[in-house]
Amino acid sequence: MADALKVGIAGLGTVGASLVRIIRERAEELAVTCGRAIEIGALSARDRSRDRGVDLSDITWFGSAEAMATEADIDVFVELIGGAEGAADQAVRAALERGLHVVTANKALLAKHGVELAALAEEKGVLLNFEAAVAGGIPVIKALRESLTGNKVSRVYGIMNGTCNYILTRMEKEGLSFQDCLREAQRLGYAEADPTFDIEGNDTAHKLAILTTLAFGTQIAADEIYLEGISNISIQDIEAAADLGYRIKLLGVAQKTESGIEQRVHPTMVPRDTVIAQVDGVTNAVAIESDILGELLMVGPGAGGDATASAVLGDIADIAKSRPGEQRVPVLGTPAKALAPYVKARMRSHEGGYFIRLTVADRTGVFASVASRMAENNISLESIVQRASPQPQAAAGSKTIILVTHATTEESVRNAVTAIKGESYLVGEPQVIRIERPKAF
Amino acid sequence: MADALKVGIAGLGTVGASLVRIIRERAEELAVTCGRAIEIGALSARDRSRDRGVDLSDITWFGSAEAMATEADIDVFVELIGGAEGAADQAVRAALERGLHVVTANKALLAKHGVELAALAEEKGVLLNFEAAVAGGIPVIKALRESLTGNKVSRVYGIMNGTCNYILTRMEKEGLSFQDCLREAQRLGYAEADPTFDIEGNDTAHKLAILTTLAFGTQIAADEIYLEGISNISIQDIEAAADLGYRIKLLGVAQKTESGIEQRVHPTMVPRDTVIAQVDGVTNAVAIESDILGELLMVGPGAGGDATASAVLGDIADIAKSRPGEQRVPVLGTPAKALAPYVKARMRSHEGGYFIRLTVADRTGVFASVASRMAENNISLESIVQRASPQPQAAAGSKTIILVTHATTEESVRNAVTAIKGESYLVGEPQVIRIERPKAF
Residue limits of the ACT domain (chains A, B) (predicted)? Predict the structure, then answer.
């Protein structure tokens, strides 16, 4: 049997502590499967004294992650610190410079510096694995980087934030408001005290930026993502969606179009009888549409100490099983030097169906006016429904008009909505939700 | 750049022809991604003259697969012949003996000789990849063999036969009989002229046997699988299932129990609001439940020339990216020599919920008698419904009793059903369908 693979783990939060425990408990099985033992050669975390439920006293401890990366007697540097800058960034660079393999769960770091780090890993002939950075335990990085080799991806999309999906699911199942569900998510530990990063879509955007690069072979462009969170989704939207045969999910979508690549994160209506519509609660799902394989959907836990640790361990095992020397698996699917420039498709050019909910004064002629504004912008309607306004807070004498369009452009919809905003009958802000249709299931 | 990887392809049906086309069309991209070119070095098929839509005249042709395996100037032998014995078996053995890597899509071969072939590949230090053998384009082999390293799997199950899922979906959506849907499937090319192998569950069983070994590290035991096909599923069962909140799917299930491993293929009721229940038509799905990762579900195309070729190409690409020399990825997840004996759990010990549909004479006391037979066998009922028999062919004066049990054992259910068969009020055969509940979603 080959020499043991020595890993150094930086960051001992929930994931790190889980990883240490698993590597120890499963030492024998891992040695059999990987053809060599996996040993923990070094640890680093801010607070050495904290009780993490595992005895760490016999492992070499480093006060800083960078010191561990530079000095420890290890083969693999595992980064579980988090954050795009500072300790995580410095330590990962130091480890790669030294010729260590790196495993990281850090989506922010990759979304910001992924291309540079990939280039460095490739120059040094080491592996940089990051399965845990996107959709936790779901092996979507491996699918894109390995299984889909030779395929041309046309679209990748998914539910990649458990907090948002939990809130939307609760709203639908129990008819509760966004605020009530957010509080419940916070109480259960599914949402942070400051939930902005999750509910406004930033977390999904980081993950999407990484998937886009793997799917399309372009430079990472995390700052070029159209972003819309779920905080203005009301129970009225969810109910109207259900009536029309849809569910609302926060999706991250990257799609190839004639004018470039669309990257967008927004509340999305998906047809209720599709598989992804059935993904509820904190569960994540990622779909990949490609020209040879067709459609592939993977569903699983997007977070949690154990699920994330499992993904990290899979990455470590891949390193244990591989031969030393120059590596041929490009970090980002395409060698960093061969990544194409990212050409952004204008959001205004986005094509698809739209759901539009308007609260309007209950007067004669309003329905006809709304329909005219749509027609003037060449928007063809799948359905238009008028109903008494169910909103208790709505002005008396108001009613709701719900439109579902056939495929049209974002530009047309924005123009139509702007025109309607100029009408005196409109009460409050129009709600616009994009519709996304899975290709095969 | 390293030398080109030369592949020899044996078998040029739909998958083989698709593979040849893709390797040629995507030559440049493949070379970039894999760090070396992939070239077709040799071909072999029964009929050289057949038009396969691709020009094959410049490739060295072998009259027999075994001759190609033995003599061709290639690094990888790709077996797309099919069948557990004969040409495929001989050629794969010859290729491994010679020290060639092997990629195969042949589930029958692996279900029968997988352990021997894995041992041979490991002895020779070559890779034996077979992603396409189970659930076509879904990367379930890679997930079990690589991503889940370190996990203990508790259950793996899935919809792995597109023909059956197509028929069951059509029956449900259109209220058609099994025979009508089968004919439609045959007309569309989703079912063979002789569909027995698919509809009686044998095809699913081959795939399940392979998954069981990967999931539990035991010897392949394809002959130890409990088998029940879908040919006796009636529209009444499907409608009753729908009324009760279930859908009927043909599942292959491998599950660890205290007394051993259950392997079973049978029509199964799954709760309608689970993700797998939404998988319709020819689409496949495989779920893996494990202790660290949790639940993972993958959905995608289970067959088709391109989807299968994509999986084969992924396997070839993995070989292209790996270093030469002794390989550390065990073919079956666990090294062949370390596989544990397969200990079969008795089907009679299976625990779960059951759906039982009885056609009975419309007399006083029958309902009470049925309920008593259940109670005598310690079967606790979730629901018991009596309704007028909707079956036109049923004897006049008959009615239907539908029972759904709480978790009980197969033995108890069989005993209860045997007791009821002894009663004079029973009309025709009782229908018994097992219920399977996904753990997380």
Answer: 355-435
